[in-house]
Amino acid sequence: MRNERIRIGIDLGGTKIEAIALGEDGRVLARRRVPTPTGDYERTLRAIVELVDGIEGELKARGSVGIGIPGMISPATGLVKNANSIVLIGHALDKDLRQALRREIRIANDANCFAISEAADGAGAGAEVVFGVIVGTGTGGGIVVRGEVLTGPNAIAGEWGHNPLPWPRAEELPGPECYCGWRGTTKTRAANPASLLKSPSSHPVARKKPKLVWSATKTAWRAGSPTSSTSLILTSSCSAVAYPT
Ligand SMILES: [Zn+2]
Predict the structure, then answer these.
(1) How many whole angstroms separate alpha carbon 159 and alpha carbon 142?
(2) Separation of 113 CA from ligand 1 center, angstroms?
(3) Is 187 in a helix, a strand, or coil?
(4) Which of 3, 54, 129, 245 yields a CA-CA distance of 20 to 30 A from 46?
(5) Ligand 1: distance of its center to the CA of 166 in Å?
(6) Model's pTM, two decimal places?
(7) What is the pLDDT of residues 14-64, one digit of tens each?
(8) 75 alpha carbon to ligand 1 midpoint, in Å?
(9) Cα-flanking dihedrals φ and ψ of residue 87, to 5°?
(10) Domain ranges of the chain
(11) Tens of pLDDT along 120-152?
C-alpha cells in the first residue's frame, strides 16, 4: 500500500464520467474516463465504483472520493434534483454511493466545483466574487463569494441556466420547454456547443452575439477542456448576463 493520502475527484457528466486521482501535493497520479451509461441509474453507480476501484488498484491506495454532479441533492428531500442527467433525479445518490464505495463521500454540484476551483487557484483567483458558467450538455452556474460557494436554502444559488433568457424577441416566445417547467431558459437556448459549432448562425444566442459565443465556443472546444464542454469564467454577474444576451 502507498503511504500517501490520495484524493479521487469524479466528474459525472451527461456523456462521460471522468475520474482523477491527486497526491498530497496536488500531483495528478491517475486519470480515467468512461462513457456515461445512458438512462440507467444502477449502471451509472457501477461505472463510478469501477472507476474508483480501477484507480485504487492501479495506485495501490485507498482515497477519499468527491463527486461533481450535474444537479444537486435537495436539502428538503435528500434526493437529486435539477439534474441534466435526468436518470439521477429522485435518487439518494450520496447514500447509494456511500454504500457502494464503502466510505464517506462528498457530492456537490459540478458548476459549484468548477467555480470554487477557479476561485481558489484559477482564472478567478484573488477576486472577491467569482461566477463560473459551464455550457456543455447542460448549462450550469456557480457563485463563490470570498472563497465560499453560495448554495442557498434550495441548493440552487448560481443556477443561471434555468433563468429565462433575458430580453427575448417576440419570435423567441414562449421558447422551448425546459425540464424544470419553465420555457425559454438559458439552458434550452445556450447548451450544447456542438450545435453552435455546426450551425452558429441559426442559434438564437449566436445570432445575437455571434463573435462572443463563437470565439468562446471554439476556443474551449478545440482546447478539449477537461470537462469536454465550453467553460467560461465570468467574474461578475453583469458579464454573466451579457453572455447569453
Ligand atoms: Zn430549466
Answers:
(1) 6
(2) 20
(3) helix
(4) 3
(5) 14
(6) 0.73
(7) 889 999 999 999 899 999 999 999 889 999 999 999 999 999 999 999 999
(8) 19
(9) -65, -20
(10) 6-103, 111-242
(11) 989 999 999 998 888 766 678 899 999 999 998
